[in-house]
Design goal:
This protein is mostly helical and about 650 residues long. It has helices at about 1-10, 40-60, 75-105, 110-130, 145-170, 175-200, 210-240, 250-265, 265-285, 300-315, 335-350, 360-370, 385-400, 425-445, 455-490, 495-500, 500-520, 530-555, 560-585, 595-625, 640; strands at about 290, 320-325, 355-360, 415-420, 450, 520. It is built from 21 helices and six strands. The relative contact order is 0.13.
Amino acid sequence: MEDIAQATKSEPLLKNTLISENKKSIAIRIGLIGSEDLATRAKQGPESVRFVRKIAQEYGLAYPEMRFRLVGSLMFNQVNMEATYWDMASLIPAFFALMVILLYLLLRNWIWVLLVCSVASASVTSTIGILGWTDIVLAPVIGFVPNAVLSIAVADVIHLLILFRLNLHQGLSRTDAMRNSFKDNFRAITLTTITTIIGFMCLNFGDSPPYRLMGNVIALGVLLAYLFALLLIPILAIRFNQDDDLSRNFLDKLTENMAVWVLRKKKLITIIFFGLTAYFAYQALQNNITEDLTQWHDKRYEYRQDMDFLSEQFKSVHRIYYSVNTSLDTDIYNPELLNFVESFSEYLKTQPSVTQVNSILPILKKVNQEVHGGKKNWYRTPENSAESAQLLLLYEMSLPQGHSIDSFVSSDRDSVSMTVLVKRSKTSEILALKRDIELYLEQHVPAGIQVDEATGIDILFSNIAVENSYSMLKGTLVALFLVSLLIGVALRSAKYGLVSLLPNIFPAILAFGVWGLFVGEIGLATSVVVSMALGIIVDDTVHFIDKYFLARKFKQYSPEAAVSYAFKSVGAALIITTCILLGGFITLIFSGFIPTRDIGILLSSTIVFALLINLLLLPPILTFIDDDQQHSEVATDKTEAGRTIA
């Protein structure tokens, strides 16, 4: 054993790679050849994981004094999917139960609760059912879809029912009350559906296929929820609403009192919100685009515990791959190429985050030393190509059947592979190391030598995290433009289209400002939140502005009276839908998949800020930009002007 310990201590390819520094842990690396077909490869991964887990369990029982830990990219992908299944199996029922409780507390009508839940359930099951007909390989973020569709589906139904109740208070029959509610809400619900779809479809600007898929699936769910709400609720509400208690809901009284207070304090409220937004905009800029891929799961998952152990024992968590070749008519045995590989390796080892550099050189040096009697001064690369070729051939012939040096050199022997082992690092640190290496290569690569760009899953994820953030910024700007344009065209007013930008931008600024103050890091998942949030929070803005517009144009109300009317018409609905949305996304904080948890936290805070801004800041802004000249305008659209507005 002592001889083995000494041999492993002097073997550079083992230290911090296959044997831990304290000699208490041994790693076994398993390489798999996957199919080129994506669907087939998606099945191979789970099958391989199940096979290895079974073996580990059997050996664990046979050798109870040993602990078998499983990590790697396949395990990472498998645990991601298992986290998704856990979320869908536990968080969706939890949210559904919470939604029922919240709806009853806010509506006080079990029939309405049943109507809302029916439409929401139909929307989710239809969305997932349609998705099941496809051959799409599902990603972990799909676990977010049911909660999102459930939450958004509730909004359309609530707006129809709240105005329906308001019309009943005015003494209208149930049929007339629903007819007027449908007319008054149709444009706003249609607008919010389109704008929500725009927000989620803009996830296609991102570089991450799973998040693009998630955006498209949620957009489909939003469309289905729209159809179910408009086709089913008018019929079912009239048929099954047997609650004759028309007493005013406490939210109706709250919103009416809030309207009075907001109009009285509108200057102070405006100053406070603009000041807070400016401060949190600065805090939002303090966020760094980075994340730790090894911490995508919390410690309830065995994989996370094993990854923490690996980081502690082996130090080497990440891998960066380089390929060195020559553009000259030579092969890898060229002394100039081998000397460069050696100098490049020595440079890499000087980097604080690099724990080991693996290449063919240690093998070549070791063989050279052994054929010269094990003398230490022969632990070096041969002086000519012929000798190097002979030594590597000798080594390869001594390997067991099925083994080769193809992991270190290409099969045609024209390039050398180098593996850079890096300690536990965040994506920004990995990219910083990559940039430093690129700068070194620009200055030290000799003529005739070529080093291909760094590759590896860690480089891939690090690049995606950065590129996705910038891509989503562009996507969000496009979404904001389209939403503003759509509102302006629908209301035939560029002024209202421009005003709609503020309550859609400010919530995200405030949410990311708070995030920057307490967390300070934006990862792959959180980079998509702005576009997702825009698709959700724009609903509040559209409904409030639409009701304000109706009161101004067709009832000729003053700005202040129009604000009061908007509060009366949609204030309660906005509070109820916000509570439901908040319940849907706040349950995500119990997810063991950290990206899902972060999305839930950010979306929840954004939704709360959106409600506050739409109820407190938007009304003063509308009164500031309007004047009483519109009060005397006569509606030109006889159909709109002649209809009953509750």
